[in-house]
Amino acid sequence: MHYPWWYVPFLTSPLLIAVVSVLHVIVSHYAVGGGLFLAVETRYAYRTRNRDYLAYLKEHAWFFILVTVVYGAITGVGIWWTIGLASPLATETLIHTFVFGWGMEYVFFVLEIASAFIFYYYWGRLDPRTHQTIGWIYAISAWISLVLITGITAFMLNPGAWPQNHDFWVGFLNPQFVPQVLARTGGSFLLASLYVYLHATFKVKEPALRNLIEARSARPALAGAILVTVGGLGWYVFLPESAKAALVAASALNVLMVLIFAVTAVVFVMLYLGPYRNPGWLSPGFAILFFTLGVAAISTGEFVREAVRKPYIVYNVVMGNQVLPQEVPNLRQNGYLEGGTWTKALVAAQYPQVMNAGAIDQARLLALPEADQIKLGAVLFQYHCNDCHSATEGFSAVGQMMRGWTPEMIQALVEQPEKVNFFMPPWAGTPQEAQLLTKYLLSIRPPHPAGMYYGDQK
Predict the structure, then answer these.
(1) Residue 164: which residues within 8 A CB-CB, separation 6 or more?
(2) pTM higher than 0.85, yes or no?
(3) How far apart are CA 11 and CA 202, in angstroms?
(4) Which of 15, 111, 297, 306 is most buried, by the most CB atoms less than 10 A from its CB?
């Protein structure tokens, strides 16, 4: 409650985070798997003295750097920029908890960038042994960065015993750590091969070289599909109980889960029957189809992972209404508006008549004109609810969900949201503030559609 709220119309800020994250992940996975591909295949090309393959690998290295270093760096910064605005308390918690981890990640990130540029720009000027070493430095650094970032992001879904002792390694080696490392490593192998197919089908004209690339990229892709499946199953097994319940209760997420495993299975079968057993299938249409399926599986998995974490931005540590669980009793006694630096300043500036000895007098809130009560209800909605809901239109619009609800139903929802939907955070305000929010929600509640009879609506 010490930060202002960042409002994103229609999308809401959390959905914007999901969009930016997915756009980043489909490239960051390639940054890991593609680095391994270049390291392994450059060694193979030098060992077999295949000059045509070396020439292609240099061309692919330029494509790789352009996509991963330029686009990947921009979207990576975009993720932290958006979460810092949308979930500042959660971001603060991650920074304070994992300072050592962030420091290590920055070291390996700089090593990645430096080795990537040396690997490409000194191609032909370094002896083969040194050139291969630089390639492996990049590949290992990129994978370690993946491991470090995964430990921190997995902590957000299941921090394990960290809330009891706040130990760095307990938080980092959380129950979700190994499953997500396996899944992300597998996704990196798989997606890198699909990028290679997409690039090679348009750049390589010689059938023999194209078949070589096709066959050699099939094995890591098959291994990646297996790791994605194993890691995905482990991810589900080590979900917190309430997250599992939320996943089971959401029909859309169940469909997406089935879609992930179905697409992964289809890709595995096509890889095995095509590039692995019968090289020569590679064509622009085949490569585009493969790439589309791979991106669909990876992006769907990211969306599901984000969706099951609510209402906790950091599970059992930071709630979606930007408060810590231990702060709820105090906010219920003194007020949600009173507990927020920015909300209290707004109330004091616009409604000085409700202030008493520097604090918000809860009784005076209900003495304000009805229109002003609704405005303050909108402020409460903005801070307490907007992390998951838009108002009347857009992502998870709460107005549309309450179409035709009675005032009593809305009041019950406001006062005990976790009883209505167990995956919602508890109300963190006073009874008076609950009335303000109820009045605002009633003001944005649309009526039942014309032609439908539900009795009198009040």
Answers:
(1) none
(2) yes
(3) 36
(4) 297
